[in-house]
Specification:
This protein has 523 residues and is of the alpha+beta class. Helices cover 24% and strands 21% of the residues. The strands form four sheets. Strands 6, 12, 13, 14, 15, 16, 17, 18 and 19 form a nine-stranded mixed β-sheet that branches. It has a five-stranded antiparallel β-sheet with strand order 10-9-8-7-11. Strands 1-2-3 form a three-stranded antiparallel β-sheet.
Amino acid sequence: MASQQKKRFCLFKKKNEDKDAMIVSLNFSINDESTVSNDSPTHLTPRTPKTPKSSLAKSSGQSFAVFEDTPKHKSTTNSVDFTMLNALKDIIGVGTTDIERTRSAMEQLKEMFASPSDAVISTLVPNVLRPNKKYITKESVYYVIMDSLRDSQNKIYDCWSSLQLPIEVWTGKYTCFNVIMDCAQEKEFAIETDIESTSRNFDLFSYDIINIDDDFTFFKQFFYLQPKTIFYVFPENATILCYQKTQKIQFVMSFRPSGLRRFILPKNDDCSKWWIKTLNINEKPIKSKNNIKLQDQLMKLETQLIVKNYKFGVLYAKPGQKTEDEMYSNTECSSVFWKFMDLIASKKEQLNWNRFIGGLDSKNGRTGEYFYFSFYEKFSYEIVFHVAPLLPDNEGSQKLERKRHIGNDIVVIVFKEMVDSTDTFDPRCITSHFNHIFIVVTPEKNDETNEIYHVNVVCKSEILPFPPFLETSVFHHDIHFKQFLTRKLLNAERTAMNCGIFVNNSVKSNERIIKHIISSSLE
């Protein structure tokens, strides 16, 4: 493999094993991912393949060419695993030599496919091996596995299909420290305080960030401006199917109000007829091929559905404060609160800030002088904290400016200083219908010498459990607590967006957008 910044991967067999060994060049390359900067997020950089003169064929991107019919080989070498290992050793392999990196990649691949996740849309493709969803954390790994497929052992490594996220439930068992227990008695809220609070039937507890594949641009990489892509639109049902046929299977992607889904079909199935029968649709679709306007809008929609920016509210409650108005009225805070904020994020000036600012006013400074910002480097997420005491304290008791921002945050940190064990947070005091999840943090000492925090989580009962789960409510003031809390916040919002009112809002919005895309593409 050439020592270049961009590494080119090839499928191959050892020449001494088969005289007919062939080299199939994959038409993509990926950047060295050893470092990730703020301006250079981890992503696949496609090579521009040699294509026909058609304008649609000039785009760069992935292809399903590896599934096209290829000469049969007599060798029984496990070329599937070997080619994947060869491609992945420099991406996920750990070690200083090729042997060490290959061995490391092999162990990770075994683990990835040892306990497979179920597909969201089940089909009848035989001999399919799917990964465990929790191991899919890098877009480039997904693509390399897909492009390294061979059928020499009559099996398919399916990294295309959308996979189900395991679901846990609230057990109703908790030992509250800073949250009032009464709020959960009528099943309006769920409480998490320790290892007993959630079921452990599956491996959801070990996920880093859930549904990370929602951040991948599958349509852009594999379908956009590809001459072989076929489109069917269902105007009445607000559905768009796009797929490519290969010699082995069909790769399908659906755009529906409920979201984007991917699945594979046997090569001989009629995609549109299968869809109509499976979903019991009473509508004849319209076939559309090489419609550039349609493809542009689908790529735009896919990009819009990827969330990389997050905003979370922060309320400060002094000892003895129990009401929403009291929390929103605080302008002066204890040193332990600012010590906590400096641990989880960095204080920035709002004026002239040129990155994500979560709706604050960076041009005129009308929403305060400072705010707190964090960057989750692993997935290039930008995070803004709406800290109530830093927002303008408008005259009057309603505190509209503060409530305008924090009241529209799904997840809110409540920093609750306590007088005694009865001085707890009651989520029922919050009037916002948008706030659904409260992560309540209490310092062991109400001064800057504090090094211990107690954490409880309380959320609307419609919200499902989200990782990382609380093993205990006690945390130390260190980087591990920051990392835990950041993941908890991110997964809280990503979970909420698939629950209750947020799903309904998303479905309505997507339906409107997809119907507009269909109607405009048929003009």
